Amino acid sequence: MFSSHSVTVNTPCPSVLSAVTGPVARFARQIASQGYIVAAPSSYHEFTGPEALAYDGPGTDKGNEWKIAKKVSAYDEDAELSVTALLELKTCNGRIGATGMCLGGHLAYRCALDSRVSAAVCYFATDIHSHSLGEGKNDDSLARAGDIKGELVMIFGKKDNHVPPEGRDLIRRTLTEKGLVFSWYEVAWAQHAFIRDELSKGRYDPAIAGICFEMLKEVFNRTLRSDLGPRSGEEKEVENVC
């Protein structure tokens, strides 16, 4: 049975669950098991058929090549069409969340630039700090941070060498300066892609992945399925008392 809450899972893998990589399919089903409608849009449909890229050298090389061959506007179009498709479902309550890992984490962040998205959970989002996504390697994701109206959850591993400490500091500082509502987690010892539940590169950490999924459940349950309505009251100054 479908619920009235929707999530788009951003992934560089095709959108038919029987054809996506195992980790992405299981991640999508895990979210769906919480009562959400899940759409997994394909990021590389311009370049390949329904076959998922393998987590090996050739697959990684193809993904990295296509990541900067595709126009940023085309990534955004994929997200816009996915959100619109979910909102057109009779079972959708009008609240949309986005999530993804690696490139998908960046795309979930860009999904949140759409005012129709209530929350985004971004796992080790690459290329935001270096504004190097898409054709020309010159995206505007961080420059447009102020356009995000929903709530963000940004999750990184301390040992992530794809997004180094100075890059994470830049993202966090920018989100703070722009006044966004966001949570920030940096997990000790975790490497890049630590929630990807296959061992081709030896980074999967099931304990930490489970904790991070609870973070996703918390923000999605609160922002997408709560019937309490918008937060009431005005912002108050925090008192400096124990």
From TrEMBL:
Alphabetized InterPro entries for the sequence: AB_hydrolase_fold, Dienelactn_hydro
The Dienelactone hydrolase domain, residue ranges: 25-222
Transmembrane segments: none
Entries under SUPFAM superfamilies matching the protein: alpha/beta-Hydrolases
A matching Pfam family: DLH
Signal peptide region: none
Top-rank taxon, per record: Eukaryota
GO molecular function annotations of the record: hydrolase activity
The protein's name: Carboxymethylenebutenolidase
Lineage: Eukaryota, Fungi, Dikarya, Ascomycota, Pezizomycotina
